[in-house]
Amino acid sequence: EQIEKNNFDHFMLKEIYEQPSAITDTYRGRLLADEGIIRMAGVDDNLERFLNAKRILIVACGTSWHAGLVAEYIFEDLARIPVEVEYASEFRYRNPIINSDDVVIAISQSGETADTMAAIKLAKEKGAFVFGVCNVVGSSISRETHAGAYTHAGPEIGVASTKAFTTQITVLTLIALKLAKAKGSISNTDFHMHLQELETIPQKIEVALESNAHIKEVAFKYKDARNCLYLGRGFNFPVALEGALKLKEISYIHAEGYPAAEMKHGPIALIDEEMPVVVIATRKGHYEKVVSNIQEIKSRQGKIIGIVTEGDTSVRDLADHVIEIPDTIESLTPLLTTIPLQLLSYHIAVMLGKNVDQPRNLAKSVTVE
Ligand code: G6P
């Protein structure tokens, strides 16, 4: 097992560190940045279905559902197609309205999640075109869908999903860019800029991983917290949800993710000197607004851990700790902001002596309702 872990203490840590190479594998043969081409057979062969879609419905569970939420922002921003993101378990029992010109995207690492499978079957019965984004090759969901794209993240053993999440976002970004280009909703300059920037992401994740020792120190300070709040806006709101989920899953500390501006409608009541608040405050995307949210936390003595763009000074002045990530374009920030949040929950769980790779009560794939 130690060999399989490649000398990392846990599979989760190994998989966190594999993200640069996993994302490179996701791009391979698909992203031809110099030529300005994205090649994805499953989308190319069904391009008309995608382009004629009045809306895209995304169904998934758990971390895959969070990837779907990130995709909602990306598809709407770049491809200007309305997107709805659904928990598969709710969708299947809601008598949902599904039209034959809808495109349904099902996201699943394992390709075996029972609720997601049931949602796919329902969508197919109603005549929708169903596209799968799976990691496990030949899995049930990849066989049940009309077409799809694999994430090619390699086996994910840790129950808490890490590299599956970032590679799902990568695949969904490639699809959104491809559709944006085909629809003409993105300018040529912007399209090329996105492709070039996507290519730099693995190297930027390497840089983000260099903060590991610092993140471990931050983890030590907050390992005994009873609660933790994660805030983000825009593309990084779903990352806040995912950060909170990671902490809950493996450390059993109660955590909540919230859109930063929504804090004043409830969670702000919880903030005192005992409450760590992780705020994603990258320089792109509502930066000033997030800084003012941070001021509100500070005035209530909350402890602030800011995830910031390198070189940031405004948040540094207010926060108790800052963790830097490299700069990138706004729609790609989730691929970087996720990294410190994974490491933070990993270190807290290890310090608390929890079973990081196999947390209590959780399963890697949930094949029952
Ligand atoms: C379980 C796993 C999660 C995962 C979810 C959905 O709850 O513990 O990590 O996100 O199932 O799984 P899927 O394989 O469909 O992505």
UniProtKB/TrEMBL annotation:
Keyword vocabulary terms for this entry: Aminotransferase, Cytoplasm, Glutamine amidotransferase, Repeat, Transferase
Keyword Cytoplasm: yes
Chain ranges of the SIS domain: 46-185, 218-359
GO cellular component terms, semicolon-separated: cytosol
UniProt keyword Transferase, yes or no: yes
Cleaved signal peptide residues: none
Gene Ontology biological-process annotations: amino sugar biosynthetic process; carbohydrate metabolic process; fructose 6-phosphate metabolic process; protein N-linked glycosylation; UDP-N-acetylglucosamine metabolic process
EC number: 2.6.1.16
Localization per record: Cytoplasm
Record's catalysed reaction(s): D-fructose 6-phosphate + L-glutamine = D-glucosamine 6-phosphate + L-glutamate
An annotated Gene Ontology molecular function: carbohydrate derivative binding
Primary location recorded for the protein, binned into one broad class: cytoplasm
Top-level enzyme category: transferase
Active site: 364 (for fru-6p isomerization activity)
Quaternary structure and partners: Homodimer.
Function recorded in the entry: Catalyzes the first step in hexosamine metabolism, converting fructose-6P into glucosamine-6P using glutamine as a nitrogen source.
Protein name: Glutamine--fructose-6-phosphate aminotransferase [isomerizing]
Source organism (scientific name): Salinimicrobium sediminis
